[in-house]
Structure prediction request, 1036 residues.
Amino acid sequence: MRTKNMETGEDDLCKNNWGSASILDYEMAREDEEEEPNLHVFKASSSCQDNNNNGGQASVDFLQGVKAQAWDPRTMLCNLSFMEHKIHELQGLVHLILGRNGQLQDEQRQLVTADLTSIIIQLISTAGSLLPSVKHHNMSTTAPGSAFHEMKNEDDAEEGENLPPGSYEIKQLEKEEILAPHTNFCTICGKGFKRDANLRMHMRGHGDEYKTPAALAKPTKETVPGSEQMLVKRYSCPFPGCKRNKDHKKFQPLKTILCVKNHYKRTHCDKSFTCSRCHTKKFSVIADLKTHEKHCGKNKWLCSCGTTFSRKDKLFGHIALFQGHTPAIPLEETKPSAAASSQRGSSGCGNNNNNAGMVSFNLGSATNANQETSQPCFMDGKISFEESFSPLSSDTCNFGGFPRSIFDDSFQMLISSACGCSPINGGDGSVSDTSV
Amino acid sequence: MSHSILSALSEDLLVRVYGFLDPPCRKTWRLVSREFHRVDSLSRTSIRILRVEFLPALLFKYPNLSSLDLSVCPKLDDDAVLRIALDGAVSTSRLKSLNLSRATAVRARGLETLARLCRALERVDVSHCWAFGDREAAALSVAAGLRELKMDKCLSLSDVGLARIVVGCSKLNKISLKWCMEISDLGIDLLCKKCKDLKSLDVSYLKITNDSVRSIALLPKLEVLDMVSCPLIDDAGLHYLENGSPSLKEIDVTRCDRHLKTLWIDGARVSDSSLLTLTSSCRALTELGVSRCLDVTDIGMMGLARNCSNLKALNLACCGFVTDAAISAVAQSCLNLESLQLESCHLITEKGLQSLGCYSKRLQELDLTDCDGVNDRGLEYISKCSNLIRLKLGLCANISDKGIFHIGSKCSKLLELDLYRCAGFGDDGLAAISRGCKSLNRLILSYCGELTDAGAEKIRQLEHLTHLELRGIKNITGTGLSAIARGCKKLAYLDLKQCENIDDSGFWALAYFSRNLRQINLCNCSVSDTALCMLMSNLSRVQDVDLVHLNRVTVEGFEFALRACCNRLKKLKLLAPLRFLLSSELLEVLHARGCRIRWD
Prediction:
């Protein structure tokens, strides 16, 4: 489709124009909906037919059909008179406010402000649309080959954007425009879309004329008949002082609308998207967040200074370089089972120590070291076997003393009765001798 | 009255006298009087704790301790450590050396507490703590003054943990990373970059490559390097060492290299040349290991004998072509020889042993395992080496009571005797041993099928025995085992595998008398439920148990027995099906206490 369009020298008016014209179209469409509902449709369909009939000529899709007005001096005139009309309207509104001297009721005030905003937006967009309409007035004469040539040039320029000042035309979008969620609007119902392809898909619902292959085709880049006539378009950031702002000494223009949008969001907006995995990294462009989330967590090599690395050797190189930096050990490494059981064990041991162990130690040192835990544990040996091991009764559980208490006593009796051995201290001193 | 004489001695004199005593005498010393006891308390610098309950009191009692050994303290865990920390009376600020080997229940929390508590800590041994991982390493790195660190077989330790230690303890001058299998080139590289004071490094059995050797070679003060069995390091790596490492004195590259198997060299660099050129250039060689070098023959050994008369230790294990001639030459010229290992040198006969007996009067260690040529006459010659401390005669099937008798009658200093599968001798030989070698502490009698209860009765007389292997002796019954248990009170290791005829009476006696037992192997024994429970509950120091193929023990028996000792076991071997039959609580507790179970 694309190649065909290029061969036929079809121009992507929409692509280059939407920034300025689409809102106008949108607003106009709304305005004029009742007055001449069939106008666009008619124009679009007629142009489509044209296109189909004369295959070599510029194929114009429906949007271009709408915008075709813009090339027309009549349309320009229309636009200008529209602006004039709007300015009058605006004046009327402001007079109204002045006349009432701020004593407007809530509903009225809302109405007025809404009107004001819409008129101002219409004014701005219409005014903006005047410029391209001057520029593109004779595009239909584009030679088929030059389109490709032009595009190639653009591609080259993309590599090292080094256009001499003045060789391109600078456009500056306003903040609201940049931050608007949608950039493509349906001329019929006004619904907004982020992508023109989605809009084209949507348009199919508005009638069969939008279902033709030409209407659905991706509009190719706008080509210019002879680049000396047509300036390359570059964008400026509306933020004063920014290097991408046209007033900056070392101004570096932005290439596309998308660049403007991303640049503005990244540099001049709050980073409102937080990574759901690490909860530390923040982004202002969703795509950046998604890219990060793809790799987040894979940067498991973390330094004590907070820097993360995707590779272990990079981390170790970093540590070798800086004094006092150490690799951080991730927190979630602790196994829950071990933690739980150690806790249980600790409570048991703590119990053992506080109640039995310490007492027994005193007893043991006083009387017989062999019996150290058995006696006191057996004294308070109300604990049943099952109870001592059930996780629920962790406070009564006594791994240290309990089993021994049973076994020690019973078996010591057992032994002495069985083998008739006299109890002998089995060298059970607490300290074994080592060389000093 | 003796009382007056003793009281006349001033305290500093008493301290000096005390300094000359060896450990068993010190035990008696403290019982003499209060004054003596006080001197003991103040002078004692090292202690080995067996029961964690006594730890705070002992630390309080001995304020000047500098070395604390907790490696045989099975109940030690994080909570015990924390309790010590909370006990304000305990002074640990002088403690310099801490042995936590096999203390698997001490984890990061405990280690950090210890590291903070003992501010002067310089030496730590955490070897064989399989649970010692990165987190524990991070905890230990708090001890910034650490100089020596032994981390052998810390299986969970990775480069990250090592990096923590390396950054935290930059004054390290000795570190052992043997069998820390997770450590890679990156960790070693960082170690060498951060710890410039390193003098001794052990990287044996690691999967490190020549890159590590290149980093190691940059260490300016390295003196000792152990690289036993690093299969990825080859000659190219060793060349780095040749060029770097100005102060390298010792290097052990066992099984790293195809040509040189083991090399302990004093004052020389590694070289890859043949034994002859090596020995001719290194005349000061005192230790040489060429084990498993099949190409080493008499010619090389005679050259060695000619050149290196200062040789003290020689390892010729598995050098099958070495004959009596080489041994004679070595014995005649190397009069200082103390250790000689001749394992699997099948060509050696009584002639070689004769010259050893004549010349090598200083010989302390002799390994003749699997030397078919050793017979009774050979043993008679060997017995002339009266300084022998360690003698290994395993698999020497040609020796009988007569040869053993010679050993028993003349080698009175013997501490270790290995008679593994020496089927030719019986109770009479053992009687000679028990009469003559009173200080024997390690005795291996596995598969000596002739031995009976009468022999066991003789073993009883060896009071210092700590390590006894009786594997596969079918003629020993309960009577024999109870005799051993009553006699050898110091027994710490006992292997009774396949002693099928020992009945419960023997195990009862064992449970009652052998309170020092740390490791026991009961595989294929006919121990009953009750006897096993009794053993496990009574033997309060048992840490390592093998309980495979106990036909008379039921699942309940296992459950009860293991519950009785679950808080002190460190290693356990069980039949695999028991994994599903034992209660999960028990297994959880065992795991939490740092016990490693091997399912057979």
